[in-house]
Design brief:
The complex is a heterotrimer of chains A (389), B (374) and C (294). Chain A has 389 residues and is of the alpha/beta class. Chain A has two domains: 198 residues, Response regulator (Rossmann fold), CATH 3.40.50.2300; 128 residues, Response regulator (Rossmann fold, 3-Layer(aba) Sandwich). Chain A contains twelve helices and 14 strands. Chain A is globular, with a radius of gyration of 23 Å. Chain B has 374 residues and is mostly helical. Chain B has a single domain, classed as Orthogonal Bundle (ABC transporter involved in vitamin B12 uptake, BtuC), CATH 1.10.3470. In chain B, strands 2-1-3-4 form a four-stranded antiparallel sheet. Chain C has one domain. Chain C is 72% helix and 3% strand. In chain C, the strands form two sheets. A two-stranded antiparallel sheet of chain C has the order 1-4. In chain C, strands 2-3 form a two-stranded antiparallel sheet. In chain C, helix 2 runs antiparallel to helix 3, helix 2 packs across helix 9 and helix 3 packs across helix 8. Chain C is globular, with a radius of gyration of 19 Å. Classes of the chains: A alpha/beta (389), B mainly alpha (374), C mainly alpha (294). Chains in contact: A-B, A-C, B-C. Chains A and B meet through helix 1, strand 2, helix 3, helix 4 and helix 7 of A and helix 2, helix 3, helix 7, helix 13 and helix 15 of B.
Chain lengths: 389, 374, 294
């Protein structure tokens, strides 16, 4: 009995050691022979499993597509390598993923995808001097105090203010209500700014909240209906938005909906009755139904490769890779420069007069705080298509 | 029978107790041994560069999860109750620790001192939470206790989602149930509801985390070997017999539960001090379940088994990163297979037989030495 | 009127919980295990029905039948492969295995069907919403049919366990496994049957739930699973009418606290009510008192 336990213990210890050796070994060897062939290693972190997998997988695919394009377009020039790690939308796992990427010789980071994990990673990347450009983590905490972290998406406060201004200007006579996810950084971040900006003019908004676990929205919708709300602002992702629209239709409530960039994707959602989204207004930097040639081409390539219509996150990731690629050319560094050197050089380029154009905006510029300056577009859904307003 | 039970609980120097103390020594040596050897090996590995950043980054979480496994073993192993709410105590510890550390940031510059005070505060608040939830529910049995602890964990998480803490301009702590706390500026905010805490000044380190694990071990092993510990275990084995010799069942169970809660709170505090951001969503049922998995996989009541399980299961998902998209699926399969292999009687017997084939030589030599000694 | 509206929403949500809770309660009754993977079977059922309807052009009702069949088989397979090897080794080991199965189902679904949320097409698409009392009272077909389905299932199940031979055998096994075996009852068969029925019900619950709340993802079943588990304990785990009562009360408490107290704290209130109920009645509302043997 006793011996068997000892044997088991020994086996377990051996396994642990093997695992450790495995981890350590791969780490040192990879960073050791840092490829002479001019390959820049770009790491990506996001949730490719778990409840937020939708966003992580979009970024993973979008980034991969851009890397492939760049490498094929110019086989003799700077080549990129796309290294993806899953973080399950969890801060702890995200830091693990970051460390793994550093072990594997990552030089520049695209990520993390979601705000809370990204905040944790940003702090590590700041200490460790990694240049990070996040495609989609829009909370202010991500860039706060971190000179090395930049956002490609709008920051939440900017979206809130832009939405409030648009509604004040174009829908002055409507009664406005908000349903938002108060367990979500993104949603409550936009709502805070929206509310203060909108109520600045002396008007009041009716509010209702939900959390990630909410499935039944009838209570919230009845609150809105009873308050006579005829313009419903939904600073949330498209899955709960589709849920809200379906249930509103069930109880015969039909306000005008106004969404933000998270709403994008609703038309492509498998099984969604697009007639429910008719007349929905949304503030978005990207629509897959655009007539723009670059976007059309991107959407086609993406659909061919992954069998899905890209959502905004995929376009953001695609733009991230291109922005990094363009900026890197300006640093004048070799592909095998160290992570720390790249970080300082890239910060200089990004805070300088560098502009990047992509699917989500023309000539994006970044400020010292790491926020991007781009103009949001307001679209309306008509006949199952986005029409720019 | 009752008489014998009473004696084995109370008396020192009796045969049963002596045997118990030998077992205790062995358990203590193995447990502390794992911790010390592990600590030295990992420190060496990190110093020589053999261990990469990825594994180094997990040193503190491994220690935290080990502590949690030890703490939960006090409830599940020693007192034989099922708790699915330890993530709740962990959350209480995390946010207490963050608050205390932040309040002291201006007056105490030494990180380690703030950490110690934060740990004590976390233990205190978590033990109060354990006491409040423990008093009414410990009359419940088995799976009913499990669901109530699960409910408790969810209540803590939901409450944290609507609680906002901040320091006002005079440096006083204030809280509210919505975003605007009276007298608190944006820069004074510490915990903002579901978004949690951001910009935490990290004070945890591998050494402090390992020391915390050692402390947890010390508390639990000593309790296990004390009069109270034996009483708790005798209640687990036969509650009615325990009651019949006059043991206050509730009191003993409550003691185990509160100590376990306090230790889980301390582990949580250490965890919170290791990351720059913490959101309440992390402390859901899945985390409670994960801690329980450590305990069950390590063998219920087996302290060092739980420690090893905690370390392995923390490293495993990271080691499986090479499987990319199939990582979590592989993890699930490994979990199921390991459970079946460790608990299914037939497979267990086969493994034992296999181990026996390797072992006979050693066994015979063991017998010989036994005879020689005799 | 808004109180009545909330009551209807509550009954409808509660009916979904009740149907899921039935699966929990029956499995618990017979094998004394908490089947944490039960919620994920709901998700599988909903996916099967959705894919057949939306991508293979099948009639929604036929796809429901196929979903029930698939989940029934899945339930039996899971019991056979993951739970049976651990029977009699204590509830904890099986609990952890069930959690493993839950992770497995979620991640397999993610790999098979992707992370994109699917917008479930309601089974009752052709039916009209009933508006009464000048339009202030609305009853959606989803609510109505979910409540009706719940009642039918409850009656059918009660009749099944009390009148049929297989049902009586199930009750005997859950009462005393060993004695039932001695009486010549095939315990394995009874347990398989329980898993089959529970999983089949989960498929129905999945389709009903997604008809009312259309978003379907690999993690869709997790939270309703936990809520239904709560409902089962609320009503007294092991008791069929208990599951129904527990589910309905839970649904109503949830909707009312969301509408009149706070939507963030709705779950906390539900769980707090559970704790209070268990303090007053330690084995749930309709649970049997456990007699202690010395």
């Amino acid at each position: 009995m006793k011996l068997r336990k000892l044997v088991a213990l020994a086996a377990v210890m051996a396994m642990t050691m093997a695992l450790m050796a495995g981890c350590g070994g791969s780490g040192s060897s990879d960073s050791g022979d840092a490829d002479g062939a001019g390959v820049l290693k770009i790491g990506g972190i996001g949730p490719s499993t778990g409840p937020a997998a939708l966003y992580g997988l979009a970024v993973k695919n979008g980034g991969e597509l851009a890397v492939k394009e760049i490498n094929e377009a110019n086989p003799d020039g700077l080549q990129l390598e796309w290294m993806w790690q899953d973080d399950e939308h969890d801060a702890e796992k995200s830091v693990n993923a970051y460390n793994k990427l550093v072990d594997d010789g990552m030089q520049i980071l695209v990520g993390s995808v979601t705000t809370t994990p990204c905040t944790a990673v940003a702090a590590e990347a700041f200490e460790n001097r990694t240049f990070a450009l996040t495609p989609s983590a829009s909370g202010p905490a991500v860039t706060e105090d971190n000179d090395n972290v930049f956002q490609l998406c709008f920051s939440d406060p900017n979206q809130g203010i832009a939405s409030a201004d648009y509604i004040k200007e174009h829908f002055a006579d409507k009664t406005v209500g908000i349903i938002y996810n108060n367990a979500d950084n993104y949603s409550s971040g936009i709502r805070d700014k929206f509310k203060s900006e909108y109520e600045d003019g002396g008007k009041k908004v009716t509010e209702a909240t939900f959390t990630d676990e909410t499935t039944d929205f009838k209570a919230q919708l009845n609150t809105m209906k009873d308050a006579g709300v005829d313009l419903l602002f939904l600073p949330i992702y498209y899955a709960p938005a589709a849920n809200i629209m379906t249930q509103a239709a069930q109880i015969g409530y039909a306000p005008t909906y106004f969404g933000v960039d998270g709403m994008d994707g609703i038309l492509g959602a498998d099984g969604f009755d697009a007639s429910l989204a008719e007349g929905v207004l949304l503030l978005t930097p990207f629509t897959p139904y655009s007539e723009d040639e670059n976007i059309k081409e991107f959407v086609k390539k993406y659909e061919d490769a992954y069998g899905e219509t890209p959502i905004q996150f995929a376009a953001d990731a695609y733009d991230c890779v291109y922005a990094i690629y363009d900026a890197y050319q300006k640093t004048g560094l070799d592909a095998d420069a160290s992570m720390e050197d790249i970080c300082e050089a890239m910060i200089k380029v990004f805070t300088g007069d560098f502009t990047a154009s992509g699917l989500t905006a023309e000539s994006m510029k970044w400020n010292e705080a790491g926020e991007v300056d781009k103009t949001p577009k307001v679209c309306i859904i008509q006949d199952g298509k986005y029409v720019e307003q | 029978m009752a008489d014998r039970l009473k004696k084995s609980i109370n008396a020192k120097g009796l045969k049963g107790a002596a045997k118990g103390s030998n077992q205790y020594k062995r358990e203590a040596i193995i447990s502390y041994g794992i911790l010390i050897v592990g600590y030295i090996l990992l420190q060496l590995g990190a110093a020589t560069g053999l261990i990469g950043r990825n594994l180094q980054g997990q040193f503190v979480p491994i220690c935290v999860y080990m502590s949690l496994a030890i703490a939960l073993n006090l409830v599940v192993g020693l007192s034989g109750e099922l708790s699915l709410g330890h993530a709740g105590f962990m959350a209480v510890g995390v946010f207490t620790g963050i608050l205390v550390s932040r309040i002291l940031e201006e007056s105490i510059s030494a990180g380690w001192l703030r950490l110690i005070i934060a740990l004590i505060a976390a233990a205190f608040v978590a033990s109060i939470a354990g006491f409040i939830i423990g008093i009414p529910i410990l009359g419940l049995r088995g799976d009913y206790l499990a669901i109530v602890t699960l409910a408790f964990g969810e209540i803590v998480r939901n409450l944290m989602n609507v609680l906002y803490f901040g320091l006002d301009t005079n440096g006083r702590l204030r809280f509210a149930f919505n975003h605007t706390i009276e007298g608190v500026e944006t820069s004074g905010r510490i915990i903002t509801g579901a978004i949690g805490a951001t910009g935490v000044d990290k004070t945890a380190s591998f050494t402090s985390a390992a020391l915390l694990t050692a402390f947890t071990l010390f508390v639990v092993l000593n309790l296990k070997n004390s009069k109270q510990g034996r009483a708790i275990m005798s209640i687990r084995d036969n509650r009615i017999a325990g009651e019949s010799i006059g043991l206050n069942v509730r009191k003993y169970k409550l003691t185990a539960f509160v100590i376990s809660a306090a230790l889980a709170g301390m582990a949580g505090c250490m965890f919170g001090q290791n990351y720059s951001t913490m959101a309440p969503a992390k402390f859901n049922v899945n985390t409670s379940v994960l801690i329980l998995v450590f305990v069950v996989l390590g063998g219920i009541g087996n302290i060092w088994g739980g420690m090893i399980a905690a370390a392995l299961l923390t490293v495993l998902p990271e080691a499986l990163r090479q499987f990319a998209d199939y990582r979590m699926l592989t993890y699930a399969i490994v979990l199921i297979v390991v459970m079946i292999c460790t608990y299914n009687p037939t497979i267990k017997a086969r493994i034992a037989a296999l181990a026996g084939k390797i072992r006979p030589k050693k066994k015979s030599s063991g017998k010989k030495t036994g005879k020689e000694a005799a | 009127m808004s109180v009545l509206n909330s009551l209807i929403s509550g009954l409808s949500l509660g009916s979904v919980y009740a149907i899921i809770a039935l699966g929990y309660t029956m499995v618990y009754g017979i094998s004394k295990m908490l089947n944490f993977a039960h919620g994920d079977i709901i998700m599988v059922g909903a996916y099967v029905s959705f894919l057949l309807t939306n991508h293979a052009g099948m009639n929604a009702w036929i796809s429901l039948l196929i979903a029930i069949a698939t989940c029934t088989v899945l339930g039996i397979i899971i019991e056979r492969l993951a739970y049976r090897p651990l029977r009699g080794t204590g509830s904890l080991a099986v609990l952890i295995t069930a959690i493993g199965v839950s992770y497995f189902l979620q991640n397999a679904a993610l790999l098979l069907w992707g992370a994109d949320p699917r917008m479930f097409t309601s089974l009752f698409k052709g039916f009209k919403t009933i508006h009464a009392a000048n339009g202030s009272l609305t009853i959606t077909p989803e609510s109505l049919f979910t409540i009706i389905a719940n009642i039918i299932i409850m009656i059918a199940l009660t009749l099944f366990v009390s009148k049929t031979k297989a049902g009586k055998a199930m009750r005997a096994v859950s009462e005393d496994n060993g004695a039932a075996q001695l009486m010549g009852i095939n315990v394995n068969q009874s347990i398989s049957l329980t898993f089959a029925i529970g999983s089949g019900l989960a498929a129905i619950a999945g389709v009903l739930m997604c008809s009312a709340y259309p978003v379907l993802m690999p993690t869709t079943g997790a939270m309703p699973g936990i809520k239904a588990f709560t409902a089962a304990v609320f009503g007294g785990i092991g008791s069929i009418p208990g599951a129904m009562v527990g589910g309905l009360i839970l649904g109503i408490i949830e909707i009312f606290s969301r509408a009149y107290i706070s939507s963030e704290l709705a779950d906390a209130i539900v769980f707090a009510c559970l704790i209070i109920v268990l303090l007053i009645r330690p084995t749930g509302l309709l649970g049997k008192k456990i007699n202690e043997k010395v």
